[in-house]
From TrEMBL:
This is Dicarboxylate carrier MatC N-terminal domain-containing protein. One of its GO terms (biological process) is transmembrane transport. It comes from Streptomyces venezuelae. It comes from the Bacteria. Residues 286-448 form the Citrate transporter-like domain. Residues 1-149 form the Dicarboxylate carrier MatC N-terminal domain. Its main location: membrane. Residues 236-251 have a biased composition (Low complexity). Residues 206-255 are annotated as: Disordered. InterPro entries: Cit_transptr-like_dom, CitT-rel, MatC_N. Pfam families: CitMHS, MatC_N.
Length: 456
């Protein structure tokens, strides 16, 4: 058995063990690099750490630490509050607000589990209160996280663009982000009408602030929840719903969140981070760390506990996978796999196979890990020039991320966990069916949209 085959088997075992045990995928990858390097590749410790992605480490720490501060000082809560108020009682727009807020969070550096973990309880609370299908709400939140994740400062985008740059491949960060966002929007339109969105059109919720005033309903009982609401069909009189009576949805606040100094400074920092990455080609990680230092000096309370909330698990995962893949490159495994894929007489079929593998595996494993592993494996295939690199990378990135709503993936698991107990089994089964379907359909569609045209 060749050294290259052994390294491939070790990588498969790493993903398999991480899937079916409590072992951390990043730690397993580092251990595998140590064992393979010592027993097969004859590498020293210095050789091993030469493949550690220091630049990617700084990006991940910087953007996730900045997001932790934004959550800590209430900037995230202010964004959610402002977005919900913007719908003015239109129930059909509430799932879309959750989609956009989650997309904004991941676009500015939040890791997907953190963003979904924050928004899922809020969104599913609205779903219970106003009769929205929890599958609809959960899918829009999960896909919102994927839609924003490929921004130039998002975690998915940072990983993908960094891997592309490290392997001297042509890249287009703006196209990757735009394509991912629009694809997820189109997918969510289908989800909206498939899972009951049509029934929400025309319905409104009358919200009430404590102390009376505004649009208060004179027929509302005194013991109704202060933040509850009433569904109003277009042209019909207000009516109470059991869900709205039983569950208080945070559609209004007694004391609305204000855009104070630290929050305004945080928003300005996030906008500056985006501008610096898009227009001045500044390093995202170093910019994010600079903003966190400024925030810590101006508003020390904003930073309290933020370092503990940094996504260290994701940092370990991505750096571990990239370190192991770097070792595979030094061993010649990447070239070996690339030649095997390139040996397929039909390059377009090989490209479709890569996208299918990425989608199916990501539905049961880590998307961040898959992005760090699969793109380098496709490098020799891409260098052959028969398939457009930008098109395939875009298709692969989208295929591996749109399956995150699977209940076996983190986003889907968080949605299921935040669903009321009496609906949890229903949501689990629907998400499982959706995840299986999109893992097969998604690669076919992205392949047809991005790979085929770039190869003609």
């Amino acid at each position: 058995m060749s050294d290259q085959v052994i390294s491939i088997i070790a990588l498969v075992l790493v993903f398999a063990i991480a899937t079916f045990s409590a072992a951390h995928l990043g730690a397993l990858a580092l251990v595998a690099a140590f064992i393979v390097g010592a027993t097969v590749a004859d590498e020293s410790t210095d050789d091993l750490f030469a493949g550690f992605p220091g630049d990617l480490f700084v990006v991940l720490v910087g953007v996730t630490l900045l997001f932790a501060i934004a959550k800590n000082n209430g900037t995230v809560d202010w964004l959610v509050d402002a977005a919900v108020k913007a719908v003015r009682g239109r129930i059909a727009l509430i799932p879309w607000v959750m989609f956009l807020v989650t997309a904004v969070l991941t676009a500015v550096g939040a890791v997907t589990p953190a963003a979904v973990g924050i928004i899922a309880p809020i969104g599913l609370g609205f779903a219970v209160a106003y009769g929205i299908n929890p599958v609809l709400m959960g899918l829009l939140i999960a896909n919102g996280a994927s839609a924003g994740g490929f921004s130039p400062i998002g975690v998915f985008g940072s990983i993908t663009n960094n891997v592309v740059e490290r392997n001297d491949l042509p890249g287009n960060p703006a196209l990757l982000f735009t394509a991912s966002f629009l694809f997820n929007v189109a997918l969510c339109v289908i989800i909206f009408f498939t899972f009951g969105g049509r029934q929400l059109l025309g319905q409104r919720v009358e919200t009430h602030k404590g102390g009376g005033g505004g649009n208060a309903d004179p027929a509302r009982p005194d013991d109704a929840p202060p933040h509850g609401g009433q569904l109003v069909e277009a042209g019909a009189a207000p009516r109470r719903t059991p869900a709205a009576t039983a569950t208080a949805a945070p559609t209004t606040r007694e004391e609305p969140l204000k855009l104070d100094g630290p929050r305004a400074l945080t928003l300005a920092g996030l906008l500056g981070l985006v501008a610096g990455a898009l227009f001045f080609d500044l390093d995202v990680g170093l910019m994010a760390l600079t903003i966190t230092v400024v925030l810590s000096l101006v508003s020390p309370k904003s930073v309290t506990g933020a370092v503990d909330r940094c996504a260290w698990s994701t940092v370990l995962l991505v750096c571990g996978i990239v370190t192991y893949v770097s070792q595979m490159e030094r061993m010649g495994t990447i070239d070996y796999l690339g030649k095997q894929v390139a040996s397929i007489q039909a390059p377009l079929v090989g490209a479709l196979l890569i996208c299918l593998i990425g989608a199916v595996v990501s539905a049961f494993a880590s998307t961040t890990g898959m992005l760090g592993a699969l793109i380098p494996l496709a490098v020799p295939f891409l260098l052959a020039g028969e398939v457009g690199a930008v098109g395939l990378i875009t298709a692969l990135a989208i295929s591996a991320s749109v399956v995150d709503a699977s209940p076996f993936s983190t986003s889907g698991a968080l949605v299921t966990a935040n669903t009321p107990a009496d609906q949890r089994d229903f949501v689990f089964r629907r998400l499982m069916a959706w995840g299986l379907g999109i893992s097969l359909v998604g690669p076919l569609v992205t392949w047809g949209l991005f790979v085929v045209p770039s190869s003609l």
